[in-house]
Amino acid sequence: MFNKLIAATLPYMPKKLVWIFSKRYIAGETIEEAINASKELNKEGIKVTVDLLGEFIEDLSQATENTEAYINIIEAFQENKIDGNYSVKPTFFGLLIDEEVCYQNIRTVVAKAAEYNNFVRVDMEDSLCVDREIKLFRRLKAEFPNNVGLVVQAYLKRTLDDLSNMMDMQNGSSKLNYRLCKGIYVEPAEIAYKKYEKVNENFIKGLEFMFQNDVYPGIATHDKNVVEPAFELIKKYNVPKDKYEFQMLYGVTPELRKMITDKGHTMRVYVPFGKDWFGYSTRRLKENPKMAMLIIKALFNRG
Predict the structure, then answer these.
(1) Which of 52, 127, 209, 275 is deepest in the core (most CB within 10 A)?
(2) What is the CATH classification number for the domain harbouring 88?
(3) Is residue 268 included in any domain, yes or no?
(4) Which residues, other chains included, contact 296 with Cβ-Cβ below 8 Å and sequence gap of 6+?
(5) Is 259 annotated among the ligand-binding residues?
(6) CA-CA distance, 69 to 67, in Å (whole number)?
(7) DSSP 1
(8) 50: which strand partners?
């Protein structure tokens, strides 16, 4: 109860206080800080995917600014020879305001990444956005077959059907590429699994479907109870190490991350940065109220 209370009150606390918690999970506010964090991860043999924090814009001028920001990010990361790719949230580019404008904005980002033979991941957001984001992904995949992927969320009851329905995009020279995660948004029980065991079960079913159909999965989890069954599926289907990767958030479960990389599996870390870190940080805590104790400890160990 104490942890949940802290999580609930965090959005109303001073930003300087929240930063004590957040700095572990955010690469920084600037491109330079994100590049430095990515270089450190690359030194450990870990790939990255970079994300400029922010979502749910209110007008399309913000979408234009965000598109320009991502072009600058791609240029900077390529200049610094970062081993990584890019993640985008469609609402950050105007999805809920004008779908066509959003498409054109993200297309511009994907086209820039494609110039460097790189890759953009379209993040999945709440249930209001799922159909729109699949539609967006289909359009991008048709033009940039090897430069774009999608996120799918195991807690949604529709996900296995979505995976099956999107198989028409798979062909010999252009494989589908998904990040499979549990999902973080609060959804009604009619459309989303609520029990931990059911979410994990659906996650493993989705992963097995991908292995069975030669789809490239980014296995995005910090849960050892998902990692171990994933290892078993990799062994069962004799999946080559270049046909999948594990993915984790910056600063989360470093011990589990090391265990995975020590076994020789590819790891990619999601590196968020930007001035709009506050919303991201409060959401992280709401997902895992147990991390509230880290804030308390940080308060008494500031030196």
Answers:
(1) 52
(2) 3.20.20.220
(3) yes
(4) 6
(5) no
(6) 5
(7) -
(8) 86, 271
Upper half-sphere CA count for residue 276 (Cβ side, 13 Å): 10
Candidates 44, 76, 50, 29; CA nearest to 250 is 50
How far is C-alpha 10 from the chain's CA centre?
23
Which residue among the candidates 107, 179, 257, 268 is catalytic per the annotation?
Answer: 179
CA atoms within 13 A on the CB side of 201: 8
Query: Is 221 within any annotated ligand binding site?
Result: yes
Asked if the structure places residue 109 within a domain, the reply is: yes
Catalytic residue list contains 179: yes
257 annotated as ligand-binding: no
Domain count, the chain: 1
Q: How far apart are CA 73 and CA 163, in angstroms?
A: 31
Q: Give the residue numbers spanning the domain of 232.
A: 27-273
Residue 206 lies in a domain: yes
Distances (CA, A) of 244 to 144, 175, 183, 285, 291: 20, 12, 19, 29, 29
Q: Which of 107, 123, 162, 257 is the catalytic position?
A: 123
Q: Kindly give the confidence (pLDDT) of every residue in the chain, 303 residues in length, as a single tens digit, with 9 standing for 90 and above.
A: 555 665 566 666 666 767 767 788 899 999 999 999 999 999 999 999 999 998 779 999 999 999 999 999 999 999 999 999 999 999 999 999 999 999 999 999 999 999 999 999 999 999 999 999 999 999 999 999 999 999 999 999 999 999 999 999 998 889 999 999 999 888 999 999 999 999 999 999 999 999 999 999 999 999 999 999 999 999 999 999 999 999 999 998 999 999 999 999 999 999 999 988 877 766 656 655 555 555 445 444 433
Strands annotated E in the chain: 47-52, 84-88, 120-122, 148-153, 177-181, 216-220, 245-249, 267-273
124 labelled binding-site residue: yes
Exposure b/e, 190-202, CB count within 10 A at least 16 = b? eebbeeeeebbeb
283 assigned to a ligand binding site: yes
